[in-house]
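Hi U.,

Before I forget, here's the chain from the pilot set. I'm dumping it here mostly so it's searchable later in email.
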Amino acid sequence: MKNIYLLFSFICVAFLIPLKAISQDLPHHMTEEEKLLWPQWYQNAISDNSKVVSPPPGPVRAPGEWEELQALCITWRSYPSHLAEIVRHAQMECKVIINCCSYTGSGCYDSTYIKNYLTTAGVPLTSNLIFNVVASNTVWHRDYGSYGVYQNDVEDLFLIDWKYNRPRPDDDVIPLSHATLLGLPIYECSSSPYTLLHTGGNLMFDGFGTAMSSQLVLDENTSLTAAQVDARMNQFFGTSRYIKFTVLPYDGIHHIDMHMKLLDEETLLVGEYPAGISDGPQIEANIAWLNANYNSVYGTPYKLVRIPMPPNAAGTSWPSTGAYYRTYTNGVFVNKTFIYPTYYEKYDTTAARIYSEALPGYKLVGINCQPDPISASGAIHCITSNIWVENPLLISHQALQDCDTLGPYKVDALIKHRTGITSATLYHTSDTSAGFTSVSMTLTNPTNHTWTGYIPTYPAGTAVFYYIGASAISGKTQVRPITAPDGWWKFNISVVAEIPDYVPVAEISLGNPYPNPARAITCVPVESNTSAACRVDLFDINGRLVENLFDGNLKPGTNNFFFNAMSMSAGVYYIKLESEVGIQTQKIVVYGY
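Structure:
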């Protein structure tokens, strides 16, 4: 009997285990064998001129991950139960591209196998599932997948492909298969003279020209200076600044998505350890450095949302003492759904609360990543990647802060679509269950695509909820936050100082200029019920100041200001009035001579 057992053990060792090793996915980090291959792989990468490479026709903008998606991408290899849950929820929001093989075996799975697996798991097979037959090496789609950029902010969508920083050649060409599948142009910074070794897990954008990574990008591109790395990021992604954080001592892969995530243009979700524990000190130093040297795109400090980095089940071990690098920041936006990793209920409940407060209106989906795939140094963000929509309607707004001032409350937003915007609307309420009141917004800065609306005065002690909607000439509509009306921005009004009875609330109105169209002397009327400071300017269609018409205090009643159109070029111009009640504009046409 003992001999039979030994023979059986030999068979397992000689045959079954090698087969398992072949079918088992490679870890997120490089294996020891891959480390031996790396020097030659790197040399081949920086000298490779086999691909047609060029930067995309600029200017381009890399969107934030929270912007609207047309597809979420995965590669079906390891962790099928996790992939199935991702498919279950993501297909309700957008297309899901599933990279699969033409056969099943040796770690590969064909579409028939995957469909059967999904059906057995109770995942519906909807028309949103796209099976892309392509060779692959690993499940880590975020790292080798492409990133999208928009020409002129909201126009043509291009895919950008870098040289994957792993010697995994099949993974490295999957972006090209997606470009072919979707009929999208792809621009390569993956071979000479534009080679940039990178990984998607170590790359995030604010949607307006800022990129963030760890300094891994410099450590691996040893043939490039920091300035050359910045230049290539600018050429391919339209970045005007590239913020690079010191790598963390206990994060073996040094990918920024393992401890940090931008939730919007100015809000940074940051993994937090107890004081002095593991990577906590370096993370805090990195954040202090960020605050000392950089502001958000709005010119204000980044808002920080802290989320705990969980220890082992017993609460006694962290990455610095050998525990897995458990993280809650490694989640993915899928339109109105946010999918993130979970581990143990006693820690997960805190993470769920933090996410529900930071992302109102989102469907929050937690997928248990303990022990896998976190044991391989990755989670949900790592095994997915995004493809954004074509022809997006972009809305960007800095949320109003709590205040103690008397309304109305000015709301500015950048709103843009390639066909132009027909209307924008501001919705507000103090009770979301009672619905929202709408207020029309006005185009106040054509050059910057700024639209302005005003939330009326609410009583002190009120919490005000609001969101923005817009329509394009093409008929496309969009709201921001993308989850509105279930999601919203919120600000609180504290005690407002009483205004003496004898001080009237200013009412200032910019009238229609006349004559319109204008040929010579033209009148710009402004009505006011009080003496109030204001400025009246004339701008051309490109937003350039042509003439300041007035800068001072109005008198009660009608105030007339003038400009001479005789020497002006023919075209459309804008009158802009700025006062304590806000910004108003009027369009005027000049015939010209």
